[in-house]
Amino acid sequence: MFKKLNVKATLLSFVIMGVLILNGCAKKSLTNEYTNYHQTGNSLSAGAVISEDSVKQVEAFSNDLAVLPESFKNAFDMTDTKNVGELLLVNDDTNEIIYSMNSMKERAPASTTKLLTAYITLMHCDMNDMVTVKHNITLESGAVALYLMEGDQISVKNLLYALLLESANDCAVVLAEHISGSVDEFAKLMNKTANQLGATHSHFKNPHGLDAKGHYSCAYDLYLFLKNDLEIEEFREIVATSEYTVSYLRNGETINTDVKTTNHYLTNEVETPTDFTIIGGKTGTTTNAGHCLTLSAYNDKDQQIIGIVLNSTDVNSLYTTMSELITENYAYTHDAKIE
User: 54, 139, 181, 227 - which has most CB atoms within 10 Å?
Assistant: First the structure.
């Protein structure tokens, strides 16, 4: 059973490197195809006729989305970016990209993949739905897991808490199989949904983000996923939580497992920059992806900020860079010309 979509738009458009993507999306259905066409000066050329009404819809929707123009210039300079690969900072209230570095570069996204897995789950499932684990799940050595077993019964709510807080990879598999029957079929749904959300620099092979050939995303696409996730109340509640007790049934016995967020701002391992309130987001770490962090926060003007840092060489650089990103944003929004 589908939940009502919480996203504002039924048509998504954005301009990347001079290419405008049109994407139709009806409520409770993610099946419509999208059309690519090129913008040449003030004219449009395409393989199909684009109606005036469609163009007006696109223009209206662009007001709800931050776009990266070809001539984009960063609003400020970062101190040191040698230990990170990709950066993006967006003011989600003004839909303004404030800083971008390699934000369209395709690379392994690690567990930030789970942003899309969570979005699809919240679109398809009720939080109280009960799921029976179909089989024991085998993951690569060292992968984080809740260690669910065949026959375990667990709610979608508990699966999402374990997925988004502790980044349990077996929970991603359980959700994928519950929704689509198999990981392969769920990956197809992920790719279709990503396209519907306008994410054209992503391709997914699994629901958890463990390294796999042909599994990639970029900072801008992760912004799109997090932006849509944040419009869902249940998602916001989960990612703002530092600890949670996950419960499930095994052979009729209740098992309780405490899970803790991997977000160091919420655990107070990293100090939150002054005048900001952390909402939450998603971390990710694999060999190919490095250390990754997607984050949403409120500034002192009660505006929602989304920051993305990918491919950091170490955890310290990851959080130092994120803190500088949002701190420089504070300076930018409070300088003399803005005031």
Answer: 227
Residue 162 has pLDDT above 80, yes or no: yes
Mean per-residue pLDDT, 40-61: 37
Q: What is the 3-state secondary structure of 134-194?
A: CCCCCCCCCCCCCCCCCCCEEEHHHHHHHHHHHCCHHHHHHHHHHHHCCHHHHHHHHHHHH
Tell me if 118 sits within 8 A of 237, measured CB to CB.
no
Strands (E), the chain: 11-16, 19-24, 34-40, 43-45, 86-91, 96-101, 130-132, 153-155, 243-250, 253-260, 277-286, 290-298, 304-312
Beta bridge partners of 256: 247
C-alpha gyration radius of the chain? 20
Residue owning tokens 């497992």: 257
Give me the residues paired with residue 244 across strands: 259
Query: pLDDT per residue over 105-119, tens digit each?
Result: 999 999 999 999 999
Contacts for 245 with CB less than 8 Å, ≥ 6 apart: 256, 257, 258, 259
Any residues with CB less than 8 A from the CB of 121 and at least 6 apart, and which? 156, 159, 160, 175, 179
Angle at 187 (CA atoms; ends 183, 188), nearest 5 degrees? 120
Condensed to tens digits (0 to 9), the pLDDT of residues 188-243 reads 999 999 999 999 999 999 999 999 999 999 999 999 999 999 999 999 999 999 99
Q: pTM of whole model > 0.70?
A: yes
CA neighbor of 92 nearest in space, from 117, 74, 66: 66
